[in-house]
Structures are given as C-alpha cells and as structure tokens.
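hiii, so i know i said id send this last week but things got crazy w the move. better late than never?? heres the sequnce for the chain we talked about at the cafe, plus the structure i predicted for it. fair warning i was half asleep when i ran it
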Amino acid sequence: MKHVLAIDRGLAKAETVLLVIFLGTMVLLAFAQVILRNVFGTGLVWGDTIVRHMVLWAGFVGGALASYEGRHISIDALTKFFPPRVKHGAAVLTHLFAAVVCYYLASASWTFLTAEMEAGGEFVLGLPGWTAMAIIPAGYVMIMLHFILKIVEHAWWTVHPPAEGGA
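okay and structure toks below
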C-alpha cells in the first residue's frame, strides 16, 4: 500500500512542477506581450498562440491534480451517511467508473492525435501541429492513473478497515 501512495504522491509532485512551469511561462509570455506591444509597438507573433495552448495543458495537468486530491466533480450526498467500509467500497466503484470513462476519452483523443499527426501542419516555431494537442490523451491517461491508484487504495481500506476514528 505504501508503494501505491508513493507513486500517487510522486505523480502529483511532477504534475505540480509542470503546472508551476506552465502558469509561470503563461504569465511571463502574456506580460512580455503587453510590454512589447505597448512600449515597443511590436510583439511575439507566436506568443498568444503558445499561451492559448498552454491554458489547455495547464487545464489537463490541473485536472490530474484535482483527481489526486479528490477535488474533481463528485456527488457525495449519500456516501456521507455510509459506514467507512461501505464508503470505501462505493469509492472503488465510482473511481472504477471514472477510470473507464478516462480510458475511452484517452482512446478517442489518441485517434484524434494520430489524425493530426498524419495531417501534418505546423504549430509555431517549426513545431508539428500535433504537439499542441498531445496533452489531451496524456492528460486523460494521467487522470486515469490517479483513479486507478485510488481504486487500489480504497479497495485496500475496504478489505483492511482502519481502526475507529481513522479512514
């Protein structure tokens, strides 16, 4: 169980670093664009495009972090009244459903990404067009991994319930 929790925490730390990099870069690029346009009358031709796509990247990485922290959209009105063992069992089922949905979304987005690869085209700065969209299947896989690790964690607590007061 410790290994599962360590993997989940390690993945979340890597995602946090990525999110900080994305958000910092977005702020710096947007600030540079404002200064370049208002002071020098010019700008980075690719700056706005990069910022727009980094919002997509930050959104998916943030979604993965939300899944790690259990802050994704959920309805838990009924489960608040369940005993701990049943609550963990219900969490296994809901996380399993979420992981399956993420699998199908990742699969569909991979199909989209391969079509983008075949189509060719350029994003900015000579990068292929598909590189901007690569976060879509990768993001769903990251979210799915968090749900799978939560399934293992909650299944463990269903079989090995904590002592009174824990959970």
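btw The longest helix spans residues 2-40. thought thatd interest u
miss u guys!!
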